[in-house]
Fold:
Amino acid sequence: MKRGSPVELVFQVFSLLIAFILIHALYVSYVRPQARAFIEQETLQMQADAAYVQQRSFFVVVKDYEQETCFILMLWALAILVFKGRTAYRQQKLLDQDLLRLPAELPIGLEDTRDLAERIQSLPASMHHYLLPRALLTAIERFAATRNVQNVSTAARDICDSEGERMESELSIIRYIAWAIPSVGFIGTVRGIGDALGQAHRAVEGDITGVTSSLGVAFNSTFIALVISIVLMFFIHQLQLMQERLVLDSERYVDHWLIRRLRS
Structure:
């Protein structure tokens, strides 16, 4: 379990860096040039025809720095979700295997514990920190030490509970990102409204172009941030559901394949 922590930290740092590079490059090379070209075209249309109704463009909606930041955070969060979801999926697939490799319904006695422990420890090193092997090995070692089935059940349940709490705490970074995205959108709203108020004197003189543009920044940033937040929260809840199922299924696996077959 400790081996995975530095790897995950490095992955989070590099995924943030890659998300920034990709999104910023996309904005510089495509999104903002498209937005500028559309605004210039719309300006010419309005100057040529006073009755022309200005159209909306997706590139104009997402062109500002707040929206860019929201997309960077979204891509970063999705990368972390994929990393954790992939790990949970691999552990879930392990539940389909017979790790003890014993005949069905064969009672397990004290003399079998050493052989069973060796079978669990012979798994690939990458699986040693998985929940199911750790729960099985803990239960086997507890039975060898105490010969008490109730103590074995308690030890296995404690391992599963602690793993569930660890998974829950590791979601805090993703929940922080999901909280930060609407906050960034609100910053855009404050900036847009502030710019609009700063150009109020021009609106009094009859030129409302600057005011409407600034208000567009305010509303667009909030709109994009809320949409991204809704999408991101859906995937967060799906990952949380996957992890909760993993913990419950692992506890059920240990009970079915090991604890109920133990004989003092």
The mean pLDDT is 88. The longest helix spans residues 209-257. Residues 4-261 form one domain.
